[in-house]
Amino acid sequence: MESNMSEQFVEIDNFGLELLENVDMMMEPQHSHEEVSSQEVLILIEKVILEIVTSLSKDEAPVLVLPNRSSWANVSFDNAVGLQMTSGSSVTTVRSNCSSSVTKFGHILKVLSTIYKLVQSNVYATKRDIYYNDTQLFGSQRTVDSIVDDISCMLKVPRRRLHVLATSKGFISGDLCYLEEDSTKVDCHSNSTATPVSSNVGGIRNIVSSAKFVLIVEKDATFQKLLDYDFCTKLCPCIMITGKGVPDVNSRLMVRKLWDTLHIPIFALVDADPYGIEIMCIYKYGSVAMSFEAHSLTVPSVMWLGLLPSDLQRLRVPEDALIPLTQRDQNKLTSLLKRPYLACQPAWQREMEMMQRSKVKAEIQSLASIAPDFLSRVYLPNKLRYGGWI
To answer: Quick check: is 132 catalytic?
Structure first.
């Protein structure tokens, strides 16, 4: 495999050249709010507080107005960007004189106060730090996570500019070296252990790689198996990344960073089930909840490498390795087929309709029922060699 690598992976090279020709079209300019200064962030927060004080001076109950981050009605689809929040989006009103929202109002003010101090003193904190600063007030980590995203959306400022970082759950490995913001050198070449995805992806610089492609792996178990096989060097120089299921923001930021820097093909390896497909769609087109940061989180060039529903028939995966679709799966599949981005992905649509007809799904691990090392020795090399992505 290693000897005639250039001949073996001519399809990847051709696809990479095709991407480079279209790179200007796919590289949408970043929103200007990416470059917002610390002083501007402070002014934006002060403006919110001033409006609250003004309401109080008029003997009126203060109200915070947040864009609704959970409604498809607030999202438009652009093939070059993915799902992005529309400017005329509907809003959620958080009132200080309403029993159902007064707690959230207090939470937002508390987090705004923390962010103001962080930006003012040029210090970073994690969302976990903010939660542990007052666990009784917030009640759960999820509350803080949601409030930080609400504030980011309300101020139209990326979370990193608020000096709030998230703890990463993803891992990365392969032909990649870079410097963290504090000049720590990170080498991802290790065959035995993966590198945690940085919690400050925006600060990464000096990326060096000769990888031919990036492979997004849905599941940690599959990622570890490929790591044990030394996939990134045995096949050809590449980079593997996993968000361990539904990806966290840092894993998505990292995939986008690799695309912006390297402009190499990015493939997704997910389960042949509705939830695996949805995870791949999050990397490619984004999510409704984070659509306000689409320009830094989505990579519309991501291709579906596997596991395809058609692969199950083509490879004659044993029936006892297939799983019947549950009603929940069928509902998710129906929902996915209605998504706005499916209209420009007829090949994906056909695969999903095939799943709908067959009423079965399969995990990546089902390939082990053909042979224990089928995934790493046969399936992936052949897919990559013959351009088996869609």
So the answer is: yes
User: What is the helix (H) or strand (E) element at residue 222, kind and residue range?
Assistant: helix 220-228
- Percentage of the chain beyond pLDDT 70 is 94
Give start and end residues of each alpha helix (H) in 263-320.
274-285, 294-297, 309-314
Residue whose C-alpha is closest to residue 361's, from 273, 232, 268: 273
pLDDT, residue 109, reads 94
Report yes or no on whether pTM surpasses 0.70.
yes
* Mean pLDDT confidence for 93-120: 92
Pairing between β-strand 214-217 and β-strand 239-242 as defined by DSSP bridges: parallel
Catalytic residue among 132, 341, 379, 386: 132
Q: 370: helix, coil or strand?
A: coil
SS3 37: coil
Query: In whole angstroms, how far apart are CA 65 and each of 51, 85, 374?
Result: 11, 16, 53
Question: Are residues 361 and 380 in contact, defined by beta-carbon separation less than 8 angstroms?
Answer: no
The model's pLDDT over 22-79, given as tens digits with 9 standing for 90+, comes to 776 555 544 444 578 899 999 999 999 999 999 999 999 999 988 888 878 788 888 8
Handedness of CA 100, 104, 106, 109 (dihedral sign): negative
Could you tell me the CA-to-CA distances from 44 to 86, 119, 171, 276, 327 in Å, in that order? Answer: 21, 12, 35, 39, 46
